[in-house]
Amino acid sequence: MFNLLLGTRNAGKVKEITSILGDSGWTFSSLQEFENVASAKENGNTYAENAIGKAQFYASATGLWTLADDSGLEVAALGGAPGVFSARYAGEDATDADRRDLLLSELAKTGDEHRRARFVAAVAIANAGGELINVAEGVCEGTITFDPRGDGGFGYDPLFIPDGYNQTFAELPESVKNRISHRARALINTKRFLESCKSE
């Protein structure tokens, strides 16, 4: 009864989300199980708009309660870029490594010594009828490295050092990242909502 579709095909995200929400009393499905469902468009101006759009699209397509998220890296010296375009920063078919290389090369041109940045995430849940029922957001402040470091995580994780730590997200133990990251902070608030649904 308490099953939640995770509206992503990113295996790294699925692992992270289920790790954080695992003891909420819900079971989880992912889009890997729905190969015939198209990918939702991400054309919102904010992370919340994209997360809401994806949650509603996949809920309507599958008839399941659906959680979807959107997140991005905002670099101060780049005017907040790549922001909502983080996943498409180097083009539609670019790899994570391509996006990291482009970011480092653009940041190098600025001469910024502080390299301040932050990760932002929004997590939305839509019910089986496609109605939005919850949105949560999270932020994690930090700095950008000069070179990628670490083998964990995904995306820009090897470039981001959260405040208070000397290691990148890709170097930190999963248990630490899943407590302090932008997505973790949004998901912890989401978890409270899911637990309240179970108790009703």
Can you characterise this structure?
This protein has a single domain, classed as Maf protein (Alpha-Beta Complex), CATH 3.90.950.10. It has five helices and six strands. It has helices at residues 11-21, 47-62, 96-110, 174-180, 182-199, and strands spanning 3-6, 27-30, 66-75, 116-126, 132-144, 160-162. A six-stranded mixed sheet has the order 2-1-3-4-5-6. A hairpin with a 5-residue loop joins strand 4 (116-126) and strand 5. Helix 4 (174-180) packs across helix 5 (182-199). The model has no long low-confidence stretch (mean pLDDT 93).
Keywords:
Maf protein, alpha/beta, 6 strands, 200 residues, single chain
Detail the topology: elements first, then pairings:
Blueprint: E1 3-6, H1 11-21, E2 27-30, H2 47-62, E3 66-75, H3 96-110, E4 116-126, E5 132-144, E6 160-162, H4 174-180, H5 182-199
Parallel strand pairs: 1-2, 1-3
Antiparallel strand pairs: 3-4, 4-5, 5-6
Helix pairs in contact: 1-5, 4-5
In the sheet with the most strands, the strands line up as 2-1-3-4-5-6
- Largest sheet geometry: 6 strands, mixed
Per the CATH scheme, the topology name is: Maf protein
Please state the overall shape, judged from the principal axes of the Cα atoms: globular
Q: Based on the structure given, which CATH architecture is correct?
A: Alpha-Beta Complex
Number of helical regions:
5
Provide the low-confidence segments as ranges.
Answer: none
How many E-type strands? 6
- How many domains? 1
**Quaternary assembly:** single chain
